[in-house]
Amino acid sequence: MTTFRAPKGTFDLLPPDSAAFLAVREAMARTVRLAGYQYAETPVFEDTALFKRGVGESTDIVNKEMYTFTSQGGDSLTLRPEGTASVLRAALQANLHKAGQLPVKLYYSGSYFRYEKPQKGRYRHFSQVGAEALGSEDPQVDAELIILAVDAFRGLGLTNVKLLLNSLGDATCRPVYRAALQEFLRGLDLDEATRARIEINPLRVLDDKRPEVRAQLAGAPMIGDYLCEDCKAFHAEVRELLTDAGVAFEDDPNLVRGLDYYTRTTFEFVHDGLGSQSAVGGGGRYDGLSELLGGPALPSVGWALGVDRTVLAMEAEGVLEKETSRVEVFAVPLGEQARRLLFGVVRDLRRLGVSADIVFGTRGVKGAMKAADRSGARYALVAGERDLADNLVQLKDLASGEQIPVALDQIIPTIKEKLS
Ligand code: HAM
What's the CA dihedral at 101, 103, 105, 106 to 10 degrees? Predict the structure, then answer.
């Protein structure tokens, strides 16, 4: 026991549950690596201004949720609330977009921080795997990314993830829509804070979950009716590519997302097994973000999947496998001579790629066999003085209880063969 606790809104990942998180992250990463996305890692903190400018001054993330602090040197730094601004910053800084073929395809996996009200599926420290394709205006890239996310969820055994799709238009048509929406919203009966939001970020009002607001939004102008010809054609192409791929989606004209950088394609993956936090992932196109960060025009698209919520969704669907086995082989030496011998055997097994562990210290047979059982190993290697005198060890199948003597020089080949 300790008097300390993990900070509010955070949790520790410990065995046996930690293995599932690792497996989920790895499965997501493997899926995008198959499409040529390469690993990127950026600092967990950045210049505060990067997120203010990138994510947007009017967003909840920037206004209420950032962990911002002043460093000893007097700089304002912020723990990253999301990955896109950082990854784009890093790629621009390293001139990756000039180094080769576009798009630059990057993926990342790590910790993100938002000062949110903690609840199931909503944490202050959470984990995302994200993918970004920088520098292409081809709708095939949007479709590729969405399909990869769908494949990742399917690969994890999830069958109830729903894809919501929208287009937010571009620099040509969005301002026209924004003005029309503002005009509509100004005529509604809304509280002070919401009225202020109409002037700063009217699209966010569409996302308001309160019934009294929702009821008034029924006749609001819809972005779909305002898309310019280019945006319409672009969106139609993305939809067609998804349909060809057998990816089901639902058009959601109210999907605006909580970050300001989006243009054209926006999407969210939702799951109903998470309580009120339904988004297991989300993303979209952000064609203007590079310029906002002082870079060249670099139309881009990406997503981030929430690892914690994906694990919750898997739990809800009953497809989360708990790790029951720590190692394949567990050595139980009885006596000093056996301890030395099996220490070497375990070392050699590991060098050959067989996971193995051994009882440390001197324990009685009963305690040692219990440790072997607890490890979840398939085989125990048991050796006492008498076995060694006969140049033998006992190989015990821990599931069936069957035990066979194995000659010392045959231990490793026998185990390798049994495990293959
Ligand atoms: P986001 O929708 O803010 O997008 O977050 C992506 C996912 O991270 C969410 O769908 C959710 O699963 C998970 N997530 C977010 N906040 C929390 C939290 N407090 N607790 C647990 N899980 C959370 C972005 O972050 C964008 N950067 C995605 C993107 C990439 N857009 C373009 N490229």
Answer: 110
146 pLDDT band (50/70/90 cuts)? Answer: very high
Ligand 1 centre from 142 Cα, in Å? 17
Binding residues for L-histidine: 82-84, 114, 128, 132, 257, 261-262
Instruction: Indicate the length of the chain as a whole number.
Output: 420
* Pairs from 160-163 (Cβ < 8 Å, separation ≥ 24): 160/271, 160/272, 160/273, 160/313, 160/317, 161/269, 161/270, 161/271, 161/280, 161/313, 162/248, 162/250, 162/269, 162/270, 162/271, 163/242, 163/247, 163/248, 163/249, 163/250, 163/267, 163/268, 163/269
More confident residue, 57 or 314: 314
Instruction: For 242-293, write each residue's pLDDT tens digit.
Output: 999 999 999 998 898 888 899 999 999 999 988 777 999 999 999 999 999 9
Extract the annotated binding site.
82-84, 114, 128, 132, 257, 261-262
pLDDT at 337 over 90: yes
Instruction: For 173, list phi and psi in degrees, rounded to 5.
Output: -95, -25
Does residue 100 surpass a pLDDT of 90? Answer: no
Question: What's the pTM value of the predicted model, to 2 decimals?
Answer: 0.94
Mutate to test the pocket of ligand 1, among 62, 113, 120, 126 (most ligand atoms within 8 A of CB): 126
Ligand 1 geometric centre to CA of 229 (Å): 30
**Mean per-residue pLDDT of the chain:** 95
Taking the CA of residue 259 as reference, the ligand 1 atom at the shortest distance is 3
